[in-house]
Amino acid sequence: MKLLPLLSAAAMMLFFVMSCEGSGRVVVTLKYYKNPSHRTYEFKCCDAGLFGCSGGCEAYFKICVTKSASANTHSCNMGTTQTAVIGNRDDHRLNLRKEFAFTSLQEFVNLKMQVWDHDKILKDDLVETFFSSNKPWLPNHGHQKKTIRHKSRVVQLTLDLEVYCNKNYYGPHCTKQCVPGKTYTCGLLGEKVCRANWYGKSCTGECIPRDDWRGHYTCDKMGKKVCRSSYYGESCTRWCAPRDDPRDGHFNCDRQGNKICLPRWEGPSCKRCVKNWFGPGCSTHCVPQDSYELGHYKCSQSDGTKQCLPWWFGSDCKAHCIPHDDDDNGHYSCAREGNKTCHDGWHGENCTVFCIPQDDDIRGHYTCDEEGGKAPPSEGTGRAIVTLRRYTNPSHRLSNGKCCDHRFLNVGRCRPCDAYFKLCVSQAASGYSSNSCNIGRSQTGVVGDHDNHVLNIRRAFSFESFQGAITVGVEVWDKDKFTSNDYVGSPSITLWSVTPGLYLDPLKRSLTLKSRYVSMKLDLELYCDKDYYGPSCSVNCVPRDDSSGHYTCDNLGNKICLQRWEGPSCNRCESNWFGPRCSAICVPQDNDFQGHYKCSQSDGTKQCLPWWFGSDCKAHCIPHEDDDNGHYSCARDGKKTCHDGWHGENCTVFCIPQDDDIRGHYTCDEEGSKVCLNGYRSPDCMDCLLGWYGADCSLSCLANDTYGFQQGYIYCSDDGVKQCKKWWHGPECLQYCVPHDDNEHGHYTCEPRDGTLGSTVNGC
Q1: Are 362 and 401 in the same domain?
Q2: Are residues 310 and 352 in the same domain?
Q3: Per-residue pLDDT, 18
Q4: Fewer CB within 10 Å: C terminus or N terminus of the chain?
Q5: pTM of the prediction?
């Protein structure tokens, strides 16, 4: 076999690139080849001489590259190549490079390399066949390099196997295409790696984090601005920090940085309680009233307590009282509960009777009762009335037996006495008698000069407390004009164990008193004073039917309550009767059939038990002020009355109507949903409806829903004027026309009114 000419060192640096359209490359670079024995794989000489192998093999190489899921496949589906003969030396340092393109790398890259000895005359001889199975993975910038060394009894080989993705291709199979752009570079797996200040999956969102006057925000992975703490708005320039204190207000912040007042607060800084809520924490609910049923009051701005309207009093401001100081209406002030308090000296229900107690001989001697009546000072609690009816002294003699008078100068027959009487009424404990006149004394005038008189002399005697026995004594005297009066006699009588009668039904006795010469007939009436009762007339009882009581008095002075009144002073209505006159009947109930109520002590009206409402107190309602149960009070009929700003069946939805560009433009329906004002779009009612424009969304350029609008050929300016989009013309923007000035399309403009071709350009 003839040796090939020796290649120069420059020729040994063989660089061969195969054309391809793949997304990656496999590069095989032969670095070293040695065959010191100059033999083939059968151990035959490449070129035989007289004394063995005469020279080196004229070697060249066949390379087969296969991509496969198997390590043992060699279909050469990535290509084959054959090098030129590298020379007949058997020790070569080379840089022989071969490239193989692929479109999608599989799990294995299998390399098959054969070394051949070129023979010009005979067929070429196989020197060596070498296999290498490689499992590449390309995370490192889409490039992997491996040095492979092979040594057999004939050949030594060193080669580099490189696997890499083409430019702009990435991933373990080089199938991910990524072309770096202005806003991104490419990662190891072909993913877009956004450059500084660019975000999003395609790095199309520009966002520059700021914390200055232009804004206060960072950027999320999509390039959207993420406002820093307490900053809001599109550019995060609006500052809002939630507060719940008296100095700064009581509010949270919405997405735009607007203050959203906490429940029960309102105002620009949410420092003012909403209607009907009061107190430092707006925690006291109070609804001003001016009705007989609910009261007459306003609410204290400081703490929500009831402040009665003028002339109304009591805890519920239901007691009416107008103070007066005149004779027509009375003279009184009003107490805290609305009761009339008479001015000094004035008495009676309306304080119209004037009475000041006196005790002198000029003004009188009396006290004043509750009604202003004058009452004389008490001289006792009972009276004894003695009426002299008849007096006889037929002998006309004195107690000593002498004549009262003689007919003729103290001689002859006795003449009648000129009689007068001294009465003495005494009392003592029953079983005893007394002539102490401790009840009273009285003296009559002369009754005449005959000794058989029919009389009607009446004398009244007062006593303070009757002791049980009474003695009536009558001293009879003879009046003498010239000498001292003479004693005629003193008949007396004692009544034991006597009980005085009543004021209108006195105890009456007709009595006869006798002494030696005298006989007296008299009537005794014994009774308790008005309003006094009992054996001693010591029980006071004044029948009443007023605020002090409602009763009459029995014979012993016991109070007998009028119908429907009870109690020690009969000033309490009987069970189930109510009202000023106990004229209203009401039976308290606590059941679902008849209701749940007690009865008003003042007028007998039904007063529903806690959490029960309605005319019959059958409607159940428990007011709440919390997010779990709702925010409501209970109306008179038991229906829930949502507090201001709360809506829905249980008043759990908060909504306050707004009409400004910060909070929105809406009212609230019964369920608390926002109902946008005319021209504004849900859900926030911040933006105008499609086709509506202007300061209050009152302008529209889309009065008719035209085809041009549906297809998107029309838009509206900020002031509501209809505008055709670019290249669309005509009244409804349905004519498409693009002006040109070239030989391919023509030379013309477009008529704005209808889109027809207008004048030619440059006269063409």
Answers
A1: no
A2: no
A3: 36
A4: C
A5: 0.39
